[in-house]
Predict the structure.
Amino acid sequence: MTFSIVAVDKENEEVGFAIASCSWDAGQVVFARAGIGAIASQAKGNLDFLSRYFELYPDAPNLDYIIDAFREEDPDFETRQIGLASFDHAPTAFTGSKCSSWAGHRVGQNCACQGNILVGSEVIEAMIRTFESSDGALYERLFSALQAGDASGGDLRGRQSARLCVKKRGWGQPGTDTLIDIAIPDNDCPVAEMARILEVRGHLVTILGKLSAASSGYPAKDAEVLDELRTFLSDKREPRYLDWWETLADRYYELGSVDRAVQAYEIYLEINPALRTVLAAAIASGELPTELAHRLGLLG
């Protein structure tokens, strides 16, 4: 009832997975650990395998050794489906003889794809083919593979959930090593919803990149980058971009570009006129310069 891919990018030292299913929160059956590897334990998945993989890993000469250890420990092993990927060993996968059809797996150079209760083998074949022929960051390749599996029919029963996660040492919140982790626990079109979230995330990355670049200390260059950011934001008038219009306005004012700052604040208020009260409070506290307040009509 699930199709997934686990993979590593050895050059960039990233490891991750992507998964989709017609069941609630399919992402709970996969796990990745930075610098080591990733595992999927699905079909009638044994979730103990998720931690057991990393316990066995230090002494494993290869990943098939870990599959064999799982077999010895689990009397219901033939109902399981497993995919393993790591930095130190070739990937491997297993599909038990008691998994519901269509069930199977394919192993690539740095990835393993597996699925059960699928429309057919074309789902897994499309995932492997797409991952190995795609360029870009690991998360982009994983998502492309997930899209390919979904477009090929995916889960025979339908759609409900999806997850994409990439781990890299030193990234994300302290102690998490999380480069990206997007979970869609319940949605009629979870892969399409993930595509939308990735697009918004991409916009955020672009915005943050330009704001960082606009801190060079060279006013002419900084103003040029802020103009680029303004152009990028020009068609983004949804509430989710309010903070970035406000930040743009503040950055313009810091550079002495009062007209640009006023224009950015006008768009900020156009998106949500109720925020005039917020700006009025900023005037009262001295956070907003009176010069801007007059220009915006916030003072009598």
Remarks:
- Strands lie at 2-9, 14-21, 30-33, 37-43, 80-86, 92-95, 104-107, 111-116, 161-167, 178-184.
- The first helix runs from residue 48 to 56.
- The CA atoms of residues 262 and 292 lie 7 Å apart.
- The chain has a mean pLDDT of 95.
